[in-house]
Amino acid sequence: MASSLFEKIWNKHIVKTIDGGPSVLYIDRHLIHEVTSPQAFKGLETRGLQVFRPKQIVATADHNVPTIDQHLPIKEELSRVQVQKLTENCEKFGIELYGLGHPYQGIVHVIGPELGITQPGMTIVCGDSHTSTHGAFGAIAFGIGTSEVEMVMATQCLLQIKPKLMRINIDGELNTGVVSKDIILYIISKISAAGATGFAVEFAGSAIRSLSMEARMTICNMSIEMGARCGMIAPDETTFNYMKGKLFAPKGDEWDEKIAYWSTLYSDTDAKFDKEIFIDAKDIEPMITYGTNPGMGVGVSGHVPALSEIDEKEKPSFEKSLLYMGLQPGTDIKGKKVDYVFIGSCTNSRIEDLRMVASFVKGKKKADNVEVWIVPGSKQVEKQAIEEGIDKVFEEAGFHLRQPGCSACLGMNEDKIPAGKYCISTSNRNFEGRQGPNARTMLASPLTAAAAAITGEVTDVRELI
């Protein structure tokens, strides 16, 4: 029987299906960090349980860590306690930890792929909504809650209801200045921040196949921002070439065996989807958000919607959002002054993102009114950026390459955007207060963010290329 990519992996991992209910799903890889794990560990201790398969868990510190002076004690007390608790729990339960100071430390969704921990055909979970990132490799990867983190630690299994299936096809060639972040922001702007609720989404089409692995990760990372349970892309030669030689990737005969299996992971021609969407790549331009959810986005040459363009039921939340953002309906987005530019997060902090920005800003200087934070996704990305001289390009442009962490993606560490200030951010969420109390966030690609850093305002990067 014809099967989709999702179904092939899902069916292979079912331990038991409860009639009329969820399935017991086996989990291949469990990633943890300092924020959603302490309560889970505490729950195990309370019940007198051990971690069932500690070798299938990998831990790192990312959300709470500072991105300057990481060799010093963490200043914020809650952050310091959470990071310390992760260290203690990993020691107690025999779990591999890539903590501060470790050469593999970094954002959990960056280190998994770069170390070869993330592999096609796997089921992967983490107490973090952006676990969907790993679906770029042809894996079923999704975020879970703290009680579910405890369940996986205790049993290496999880109760899950099978989601509906959606395929989004993007075909054709991308325009100049348009990158993967623009693709996903465009999709979300079209179907809304709830448009894929209840679905597992497969991204397909020639435009997707032409992307690098790091670009594919950006797209799958933000699947959750349109309500999807997970996002996936079928593995191919691009996937295999990226993985080959990675630290924890299969070697020798095992590599050949895995390639043979991974090559079967695609949706059959007559696979059935509950919903299918078709997009022409040429319709996508550099995107930017203007509101307080990722679906409130427009092309950079466009405008904030006028009230007449908004559905009557949506007007109260639309007006509330614009009030928070300090924007007026119907006004152009281009030319809006910005105060901060943040390039980082699990969405856009990989070496390709940093190379893209460095290539664009080389020989240029940042605007005087803008503060620019460049935060690599891992120690390995940081090391590579320094080896390639990217840090020097940033320094000459007036940018500063900081140390790895989630940073200004969320107001959970020292890197917060001040109240009322505008930040163009390559992260994934623009909720009220996400980057700090009353901070105003505009999501964009690394290229669009870099253009704003140079000009001091929202800019169409195509005019500078």
Descriptive report:
The chain folds into two domains: 5-275, Aconitase, domain 3, CATH 3.30.499.10; 288-463, Aconitase, domain 3 (2-Layer Sandwich), CATH 3.30.499. It has 465 residues and is α/β, with parallel strands linked by helices. A hairpin with a 5-residue loop joins strand 1 and strand 2. The chain starts with a helix and ends in a 10-residue tail after the last helix. The chain has a five-stranded parallel sheet. Strands 17-16-15-18-19 form a five-stranded parallel sheet. Strands 11-10-9-12 form a four-stranded parallel sheet. It has 15 helices and 19 strands.
Would you tell me which CATH topology of the largest domain applies?
Aconitase, domain 3
CATH superfamily of the largest domain: Aconitase, domain 3
Cα separation of the termini: 49 Å
Query: In CATH terms, what is the architecture of the largest domain?
Result: 2-Layer Sandwich
What gross morphology would you assign?
Answer: globular
- Strand runs, count: 19
Major beta sheet summary = 5 strands, parallel
Spatial extent as radius of gyration: 21 Å
